[in-house]
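Onboarding guide, step 5: your first structure request.
Type a short instruction followed by the sequence, for example:

Predict the 3D structure of this protein.
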Amino acid sequence: LQEQVDQRRARLTRLLQGSTVDIEAAVIEELNNLGKKLGVKGEAGAKKSDTLKALRKVVESPFSDLGPAQCTLVELFGQSNTADPMADDDEGEGEEATEDGQSSSDSGFNWQSEMKMLFHKLGGVEKLARPNPSTADIGNSSIINAVGRLSAIRELPSGIGLSASLVAGKKIKGRSNLEIVVSGKDTPEAVSGQWSKVRELFSRDDTVLLFHLKNHYALVYALRESAGIQTGDPPQREILTARRGQRPSAWISWEECRETMIRWNGHVFIRVRRHVM
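The system replies with structure tokens like these:
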């Protein structure tokens, strides 16, 4: 998560033509003065809209001297013609709608979204640093990156590596090469095909599947399928996973898995694969 903060900060530094570090500190101080904190829920928590309001107050203050990035932000605020530039966009479980949370090129630079997400990630780092840490802001990209790191630092057999990738979910901007794309418009035949692909992936001896369900990541331990009780009933297809903790404790229907993924972009299946390097 800290790496994501550093990457976003470096991108903003380049695009705003100056460091944002002093601006970040000034915004956090302004939020604290208002009784708001990053990474906290409820009334005391700073929403993204609160953060933008504090940012505007800080950079437009005649008493601030926060470097070249301040001048750029003052100009950007002045140019903003959004009907409600402070509109809040908090949603989901702490993960961005796009897969990596940022544009692939500078031409897609949305300074308000970038600044809000920077502070959102700073709040996530704050959550992890507490005596009782929260992993709510650890998203799919963090899991995938962590698997890559494990592959680099663990003592695996020579020539063997680990990698992770998204294999099932909604098709959205920034997400490509999904093997299983779910949609609310899928036909029964398409749903059956999706289940067959899940079964195929699960059966591979080089693959482990993780399910990102609501507020949780859990292994897929088993699959089962049975015919309908009465003639004409749809088959029953289920995965064995966990809604809490990591013990195999919950059979969840494939239909519920699909609904979960369709409901929010961040809910996906992740494939962890062993491969020859």
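Each response can be followed by summary notes, for example: Residues 111-128 form the longest helix (18 residues).
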